[in-house]
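Re: the request from the purification team.
They wanted to know what the chain is likely to look like in 3D before they choose a buffer screen. I agreed to run a prediction and write the result into the notebook, where they can find it.
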Amino acid sequence: MYKYGNPDVATKRMIEIGRGIRIRREYPEVPFSWIGTLVNGTMGITIDASSPLKAWVEGFWVETIVRTLPGLGTSISWAELDNLPIRSNEVSVRHEGIRKTTFINQTGPSLIWCAVFPGSHNILNFNGKSVKANIEDGTLGRKNSWVRVTVGSGGTTTVEVPK
């Protein structure tokens, strides 16, 4: 449901599965899938792994880009995930609604973070400064706005949709 732009239904199902008594709940696939959906759906954290050649041609100095797209519905005002391992890094991501995300590169080398927000926005605020946003077609023809920023080791960066 996150993928198809319905985070309220997805959140309701996540809570039902997490709290409810289900057949086969003791199978390890169930909690692993639940955590995967929390990371990829609610927090919208995905990895864009380019080939080394593409990374070199496009000017990336790393092959992996961490993308975030808040999947919070109307019933969740914020969500935070700490100490998430991504290759040799640990990161924290905090979404405040669907308009503000803070990314912390807790440990490891510098990362490229692609902060994505639903909707078509020409400008996003990066650490309080206005920057031109890129606009892409998302799932089912929805528009997403994004910026790509570098977050150094131990660095904290915030990107938000201007009011």
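For the purification team: Residues 29-42 form the longest helix (14 residues).
Please add any questions underneath this entry.
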